[in-house]
Amino acid sequence: MMSRDVSDEYLDGFAGILADASATGRRLTREEIDSRRVLGEQAAEAGHGLRALVAAHLSETRANWPTANGVTTDSVLAAVAQALDAFAEGYERAQRLAVRQEEAARREFVDDLLYGRSDLGRLAQRAERYGLRLSYEHAVAVARGDVPYDEGDPVPREVERALIGRFGDRSILLTTKDGRLVCVAPGDQDDVLTYFAKQAYAATGGGQVAIGRSQPGAAGVVQSYEQALNALDLAERLELEDPVLHASDLLVYPVLTRDRQAMADLVHSALGPLRQARGGARPLLDTLTAYFDSGCVAAEAARRLSLSVRAFTYRLERIHKLTGADPSDPVHRYTLQTAVIGARLLDWPEKPL
Question: How far is the C-alpha of 231 from the C-alpha of 313, rounded, in Å?
Answer without folding.
Answer: 33
